[in-house]
Amino acid sequence: MHPCWREFVFHASARQTRERERVKLFYQIHCLVEDLSTENIAKLEETIAPFSAFSSIEFLDISNEELEPRHNYYKLDPLIASEIKKLYLKLNAFSQKRFSKMIMCRFFFASLFPQYDKMIMFDVDTLFVNDISESFFIPLETHYFGAVREKDLIAMDRNSTKDLYELRQMHAKSIGVADAFPNLKEAQILFDNYFNAGFLALNLKSWRKENLENQLIGFFLLKNEKLLFND
């Protein structure tokens, strides 16, 4: 990820003018940013202005820079910021060059947004052609999140666990962590559950109930380099 990379989270509440099955919806957008310029903030606010009757945007900055007070621009909780930095420094050199510490925020959504039981997370480069509230209202029940299976494996002719295993082994060697690729059993789990992390419907209520935040962090610390692409 790049220094100005952004990640969005979305929450729909029942008020204002957009409707779903006669229930009025309001779209609250939270933009996770790192050193985002005032010019780009203004551009995003200008973009959403025509839809202000049923939507609004807020910014949560994860950088260490001092911020000028703004009505919709907030600083990350210092304790969470410290944990994100610690986890980021656990990444191998390749991952630290490729990603910003923004990817670590995904561990902490339940803590970052305690006011919500459910939300949608998506990368800033996601393009929507229709209303996304349909994804928000998909019943997740006891599932931690909803996601779409990744099709890149098929596009790369990786049609089996063995193919994926060899691909991960090749990547591990190319980034200097030759002993850190998954074994065949782990590769089977990856192959069966390979999903796109760029758009997720999150069941934060279930995250809190099962203490998923700490489980994810523990898994990351245990596997770390075996994950290779840590986003």
UniProtKB/TrEMBL annotation:
Keywords: Glycosyltransferase, Metal-binding, Transferase. Gene3D superfamilies: Spore Coat Polysaccharide Biosynthesis Protein SpsA, Chain A (3.90.550.10). The keyword rRNA-binding does not apply. GO terms for molecular function: glycosyltransferase activity; metal ion binding. It comes from the Bacteria. InterPro entries: Glyco_trans_8 (IPR002495), Glycosyltrans_8_dom-fam (IPR050748), Nucleotide-diphossugar_trans (IPR029044). This is Lipopolysaccharide biosynthesis protein. It comes from Helicobacter pylori (Campylobacter pylori).
